[in-house]
Design brief:
Strand order of the largest sheet: 1-2
Number of helices: 9
Number of domains: 1
Structural class: mainly alpha
CATH class: Mainly Alpha
Distance between the termini: 56 Å
Low-confidence stretches: none
CATH architecture: Up-down Bundle
Shape: globular
Order of helices and strands: HHEEHHHHHHH
Length: 267
């Protein structure tokens, strides 16, 4: 795959910055995986699948980032003070494959803590997943042209954005519909989740457009920085907030482990 990462030589600082960003992403997801596994017993059965989905997201995203980090160090070698491309190339396409798995999980988590019933969750999840896959697939097609044809990059990016807008509209509408059902102060937290999603998910299209406005080695560093911040925000921090909502609602429903963890019952 032709990505702009393979077009340039990198200074030691630029190369190591990208390497450190990818490694930080791996560490954040693996640490969060341990946390979600430990904390899952504090979540009532009604919400526990949301925490389980966080574990799936951490494993999937963590493995892809391990692959990305290894690919980065394999693709370039230090020659005369700069890192130059070798026979192996770096490929961002694996991220899109990962998003096909993780984004449906993230959206389903949200529906669970919004207290929809099973039938409603299935119906809304189907709509959200189809929109998400449309967004990802068209974005994947667009980034195939980032080296050869910026016109197609713009066109497919615009199509992907239409799916993105539809997805966020349903997410916002769902939160507005169900916010009143959330207990123990989590109605305020769910709004923070919404704004976190808007922030993190907007970073991805900015990263997608980097070849159009910063087509150089610094642009590559910026793109990997945007990807890393977006990954940690939209998966790790998002998962922590969803789990917090799940524990608070579990405690409100009388689930003893959650009540003890929050200091509402004697240990």
């Amino acid at each position: 795959m032709k990505n702009i990462e393979n077009l340039f030589d990198y200074t030691i600082g630029q190369f190591e910055t990208v390497d450190h960003l990818l490694t930080m992403g791996v560490g954040a997801h693996l640490a969060a995986l341990v946390f979600f596994l430990v904390i899952s017993q504090l979540v009532a059965p009604k919400y526990r699948i949301a925490t389980a989905l966080s574990c799936i997201v951490m494993v999937s995203a963590g493995l892809i980032l391990v692959s990305q980090a290894g690919m980065w160090t394999d693709a370039f070698a230090l020659e005369n003070g700069v890192y130059k491309l070798q026979d192996i190339t770096f490929n961002n396409g694996y991220r899109y494959v990962n998003w096909m798995i993780t984004i449906p999980c993230l959206l389903t988590q949200l529906l669970i803590v919004l207290n929809y019933n099973k039938a409603q969750i299935v119906k809304k999840a189907i709509s959200l997943v189809l929109l998400a896959w449309g967004m990802i697939i068209t974005g994947y097609i667009g980034q195939l042209y980032e080296v050869s044809d910026l016109g197609n990059l713009y066109i497919w990016g615009a199509i992907s954005t239409l799916f993105f807008i539809g997805l966020n509209f349903i997410v916002g509408k769902s939160i507005a519909e169900q916010k009143s059902t959330l207990t123990h102060g989590t109605d305020k937290t769910i709004m923070k989740v919404f704004w976190l999603m808007m922030f993190a998910w907007t970073l991805y299209p900015i990263a997608y457009m980097v070849p159009a406005f910063m087509n150089n080695a610094d642009g590559v560093v910026l793109r990997q920085l945007l990807f890393t911040v977006a990954d940690i925000s939209s998966k790790v921090i998002y998962g922590l907030m969803i789990t917090y909502i799940a524990i608070r609602q579990s405690a409100s429903s009388g689930f003893i482990p959650a009540r003890k963890a929050l200091g509402m019952e004697p240990q």
